[in-house]
Design a protein that fits this description.
alpha/beta, six-stranded mixed β-sheet, globular, 514 residues, 22 strands, 33% helix
């Protein structure tokens, strides 16, 4: 592949009342892996949408190989070899088509293949996947792929389209460590062997240091810092630049991710919510037992595939329980479906926020009030003004940054969207909050705000289940932690009695039952 350089100068984007990008300068060339870091709302997504042709109304100059270019549509970007893989990969995958068909879809659509011939498509796809060292079966349906496999398929699709610049938007947010390492191997292969340039957007500072050769930090729509990444690069250098602190920023926080470890004692009392010997019908988890007291935050720790998500959905009535029992307030209950869970005061903040947690094209106020919609109806009529008045108080209380409650929620930052997802259950006055990987795609500043919100819920006597693979988050916000491995509980701890290394060691252990 020929040498490729991209230079952006004085890029500006303005929305009504907001300067999203303010004179941004950026450069990348073949073989470079450049991290793009910054808090939610710093301008990262806006800048990437400029480079990928999504935002056509930008000012400034973009040059490819020294030649001025106009990126006013995704087709313009694709012609120059610029491709982006978003965090919500399901939106770019055709689930009922095979791996081969998804991989070669553009060839079919653009007429590069005159006829659809299943055998030749499978053979061509197998050759492409083999060259990229990807073990994906061409005949497999895309819906059967894991999240990481879908990401790798989209990367392979971009490479097949002669990708010269690959943009990855929070690619590891929902991946296990093994899946993350496989993705990193692919990124290094593209940069080293294929000569592609890669922009890696992530909030996970250790991954940036491990994978990237340089880092650009954005803040308030501007470039705040740029530096080469070396073995001597410290996490606090990047974090300090993101938060606008001095380069010599240090802290005495007890967890590696920069979150303050809570030092309070767990709440004593009778269990508010108790699960005993719970198993599902698909054997994703078995004989699960744990309890949560009112005013307590209990962690479910485990890697992807450990059973966290399946347990969370089962407790919300979105998964089928095979055996075991659930008690709430000492009374045995059966949770028939999500509507039944809501009636019982149970709330779920799902792992897939955009596809399962919000209505992206609806107003922020509607998203906050939807869980309590019956309270805003009178004789079958929706009283919109009453709902808006009620939820606007929560917008202020939770600290959601938006132009007004009428702003579509899809235009909010990831952190503010997540506040809204939690806030909708606050308007419904839920008593048990089940949070499944709630900090995915959320920057360090917004995480601290969300942690404070979670602790506030506990302080009001709510019970919280916090499921995560991030040990620093678990240590920062929970009172007790149950470790999951292979669908079973392999240990439980008081949070104050375990450190990050010990907890990670227990998460990585293979249970003796396997």
């Amino acid at each position: 592949m020929e040498e490729f350089t991209l230079t952006a100068e004085k890029i500006r984007v303005e929305f009504p009342g907001v300067k999203a990008l303010d004179a941004v300068d950026f450069a990348i060339k073949s073989g470079e892996i450049c991290a793009l870091a910054g808090a939610n709302g710093a301008g990262k997504s806006t800048f990437m949408k400029v480079l990928s042709g999504i935002y056509r109304s930008y000012a400034g100059e973009i040059r490819c190989n020294g030649r001025n270019v106009s990126l006013r549509s995704p087709a313009d970007a694709a012609r120059l070899g610029i491709h982006i893989v978003y965090q919500e990969v399901d939106e770019a995958i055709l689930p009922d088509f095979t791996v081969a068909e998804n991989l070669l879809m553009e060839d079919l659509a653009l007429g590069k293949k005159k006829l659809y011939h299943r055998k030749s498509i499978v053979e061509d796809a197998a050759k492409i996947l083999s060259e990229l060292h990807l073990e994906l079966a061409p005949k497999r349906l895309a819906r059967e792929l894991s999240l990481s496999e879908k990401q790798l398929l989209l990367i392979a699709k971009a490479v097949h389209q002669e990708c010269r610049l690959l943009i990855l938007d929070e690619p590891t947010a929902a991946l296990s460590r093994a899946e993350t390492e496989r993705l990193f191997q692919m990124i290094r292969f593209l940069a080293g062997e294929k000569g592609s340039a890669v922009i890696f957007i992530s909030h996970r500072i250790p991954e940036i240091i491990e994978t990237c050769g340089k880092c650009t930090v954005m803040r308030d729509g501007r470039i705040a810092a740029e530096f080469e990444i070396t073995p001597e690069t410290k996490q606090d250098e990047i974090t300090g630049a993101m938060l606008g602190l001095s380069s010599g920023y240090t802290n005495d926080r007890s967890t590696e991710g920069g979150f303050s470890k809570k030092t309070g004692e767990p709440t004593e009392g009778c269990p508010f919510f108790e699960v005993s010997n719970l198993s599902d019908r698909r054997n994703k988890f078995r004989n699960i037992s744990f309890h949560v007291e009112a005013g307590e935050v209990v962690g479910l720790a485990g890697l992807t595939g450990a059973g966290k998500t399946e347990i969370c959905k089962a407790l919300f009535g979105a998964g089928k329980v095979g055996s075991g029992e659930i008690r709430m307030g000492g009374t045995r209950i059966a949770i028939k479906n999500p509507a039944d869970a809501v009636r019982k005061g149970i709330a779920l903040v799902p792992e897939q926020r955009r596809s399962e947690g919000i209505f992206p094209t609806m107003e922020t106020a509607f998203n906050l009030g939807v869980a309590a919609l019956p309270a805003f109806c009178h004789f079958g009529f929706w009283r919109k003004k009453k709902m808006e008045k009620h939820v606007n108080a929560y917008i202020r209380k939770i600290g959601i940054i938006c132009s007004s409650g009428k702003q579509e929620i899809r235009f909010l930052s990831g952190g503010n969207q997540q506040k809204a997802v939690i806030g909708k259950w606050m308007t419904a006055k839920s008593n048990l909050y089940i949070l499944d990987e709630p900090m995915q795609g959320v920057d360090i500043g917004a995480k601290q705000e969300l942690f404070a919100l979670i602790r506030e819920l506990a302080g009001e006597g709510r019970a919280v289940i916090y499921a995560s693979s991030d040990v620093s988050e678990l240590l920062a916000v929970t009172d007790r932690i149950y470790v999951l491995n292979g669908g079973v509980v392999t240990g439980d701890f008081q949070t104050n009695d375990v450190n990050e290394q010990e907890l990670m060691h227990r998460i990585l252990e293979v249970s003796q039952d396997e």
